[in-house]
Each structure stands twice: as C-alpha cells, then as structure tokens.
Amino acid sequence: MEQNKKRRNIGIIAGVVVVLLITGISAALIVLNQPKVRLARGISKMSKELTAYSSPAAKQINKSLLQKNTMKGPYTLKIDMTATFPENDTLSMLNMDLEAGCDNEVRQANIDFNLGAYQMNLVNGTIMVDDNTMYVNVPKLLNDTYRLQLDTLGADYNASAWKDQLGFKVDSDVSIDFFTREDADYTDMEELMDALSEDAQTLKDTIVVQKASDKASIKTSNKSMQCSGVNITIPKDAMNVFLNSFQEKFMASSMYQQGITKLIEQSSIAYLLEDDIRELVDGQVEDVLDIRCMNDISLNLYMDSKGRIVRIMTPQAIECKDSQIKSMELSADLAGTDRTLDVIEATCKLNTVNGTETYSISRDASVTDEEYKEDLTLDVVGTDNMTALTMRYKNTWKLDTLAFDGRIELESGDEKYKLSADGSYKDIVEGQSYTLDLDTASLEVDDKALMRIAGTFGIEQGMGEVEIPQDSIDLMQMDSTSIYQMFYQMLTAL
Length: 494
What we know:
Number of strands: 24
Helix content: 25-40%
Largest sheet: 22 strands, mixed
Number of helices: 11
Structural class: alpha+beta
Distance between the termini: 118 Å
Strand content: 35-45%
Shape: globular
C-alpha cells in the first residue's frame, strides 16, 4: 500500500513537471516570437555577419590602435613611388622618395624628399618643423634655409612685402598647426552624440514594433520560402521633431563649425571669401538635412526559419516635404545561403522635384578559408528609363598572403573611368607598423591608361633626430628685392 502511494506521488510530481515543462517551453516560444524579440535577434545576426567582410589586412594592422600610437609617440612614414603617364609624350615617368618622421607630443617633424624624372634626381630637400616654426631647405633650388612662423602666419603675411608682390590680403588670424591633438576629433563627436542622446531616446520610445500583416515569398539560390516578419512604425511628428533637433544641433556643433574652419584654412586665399564659403556650405548642408516626413515611416523586415533578416521593404512610400525629395521607396532582398548578406538585390526609388531616380544595387560575395571576394554593381536610372550611371566594384583578398586585387569602374553616358590596384601587405606588427607593396595602381579614362603608380608605402614607430638649422632666413621679413632674388635663383636652377 505504501509502495503504491509512493508511485502515485511520483506520478503526480512527474505530471506536474511535464505540465510545467510544456508551459515553460510554450511561454519561451511565445516570448521568442514576440515582434521586438524577433527584431532584436535579426539585427544581432546581421551584425555578426558583417564582421566576415572586413579587410584581413585591416584586422591585423588594427588601425585604431595604430592611430593612438602615432598620436602618443614618434612614427615614420616611408614612400618609394614611381608614376608613369602612357598618354603624355612630354613627361612619361616621375619618381619620388619620401621619409617623414613626426612626434605629436614633442611637436617636431622632419621630412626628407627626392623628386626625379626618368630615374634622374631633379629636386631634393628637407622640411623641418619645431613647434610652430617650419624650416625649408632645397639645395638644388636655393642656397639658403628659410623659416616660417606658422602660428602667426596671417598677421606676418599681411605685414610683409609678400602681400604687395602677390596682390592679395589674408585674414590676420590665419595659422597652421602642423601637429594633431590626440582627442581633437573624438571629443567633438562625443559632444554631438551626448547632445542628441535624449532626442534619440524620445524618438525610440515612440516606435511601434508589431507582427507584419502579411508574409513574403523569398527566393534564394537553392530554395523558395514563405517568411513572416515584423513591422516598424515611426510616427511622423516624432520623426520630424527629431530631425529638427538634429539639424539645429549638428549645424551648431563644434564638429561642424570646426570642420568648415579647417576647410577654409586649407588655402589662405579662401579667407578672402570666408563668409561666402560658410554660406555656401551651410546652404548645401541645409538642403540635405531639411528633409521632413508627411506620413508615418513604415518598414517591414522579414525573417527566415533561422531568424535572419532576408527582406527589408517599405510597404508604402515615405512622403517628404521641404526638400528636393518628394517620396522614397525601398526594397532589399538578402538571399545568401551561408550569410544572407552574401547576395543582395536592393532598389531605392526616389521621386524628386526633377523627376524619378532609381538606385539598384546588386552584390555577390563569398568568404572562405582562402579568400574573400566581392562583386558589387550600382545602377542609377533616370525618369527616361535611361541608365545615367553605372558603378562596378570588384575585389579579391587572399587571406594567407594578404594580397589584393580590386577595381572600380564608372560609366556615365559615353564616358568610362576605371581605377584598379593590386598588391599585398607585409611586415605587419599590430598597431605598430606595416608595409604595402603596390604592384600597380592605374587610372584609365575611355579605355586609355592616363597614369600608373607602383611602389612601397610603409609606417613604423620611431623617428630620427630633428636637426634644427642654426642659420635661416625669415620669409616674412624679406624685402621685395630679396624676394625677386630668391625667385631668380630658383628659375636659374631650373
């Protein structure tokens, strides 16, 4: 009797466990199939796929670490390059040797260069920078070493004989800082992101994610399947509030304002037109950022049985106002087998004030243990259904030798452009150094080779000692006679 009771108790416990197990599995399945969960899983899987397509050389070089190291300590850049010009009867070959050392912390730099033609040396010289002072020595052209004060360049120029000789004035605040601060760019970006973080969170809270009302028929290379998906809806009012805030904060940010300042600083003459340049740039940026929505943004994402996103589309056109774009539609199929992103067929249709533009992208990629290959085509078709532009990009990486072979082709009407390059990376020390052997890089226009480049490019840690000249002539203290004599000496040497 006692034994039978124990059996009944075990049976009851087992039954409860089974019920709880079934209930738990059912609950888990329900949770996993919630639209927000499915969306998060799909995005996560897509992010993992993207890591397969990065350059194998970039992985080993670790450019982020290399940049940090060059900011903190000395480094040297070496270039040995030959350029040929097959279509130029006057000058068919140039060669350049350059070794540039720089230390941002101690604010010193040294650049040794040799320029030649037909393997004959034409000009050699040295440029040295010590804090805010630059020294230039070109023995074949000039007998003396000349110096320039970079931090007071604008004021010094306006007070010099050069202003009268060249015939224009520059802004007195013009200056050049040869060296880069470690946190110059990152800080500005972080400030903008911090300013937008609250706006982004507010927008995120308004987004509605729900099950898509239909299924999509997706065809891959080896099968056809019916896929369910999720719908993402962003209310137009919330989106426009965010876009307004983004435009205002971006254009007021130090990153944007300093970017324009750096653009102007590239040429002293540009300071004569500073207000015009700022107005032009502001206008162009506003045209891009001035887009606003007339309806809610709706986006459907469909997943396969593995939870991978295989189609992205707008179920209805996104209508816009206050911009050059009146409406837009998007459709993209991700049909790869091993990775969905291996095969992409995407179309973006823009209805603009000037007509209709359709952008079609086709991608075929593969990653094996031996190589990474990518073939990408972009076609732009106008209102008249005529192809306005075709771009093709092909690249192959050998993973063991870090050899590459790539090209970009552009066709616009009867015009054809082709840029190709092949070579390999070697002597890589992560975050420290590398060498690029460029076998050939060529530019072709209408099937004619305009220029070919071959050579070696490398970067390494450390640099030689900068020997500051004891005797030098201040360029901005020269009188008109001295300036004429300097130019005469250069012309005579040439």
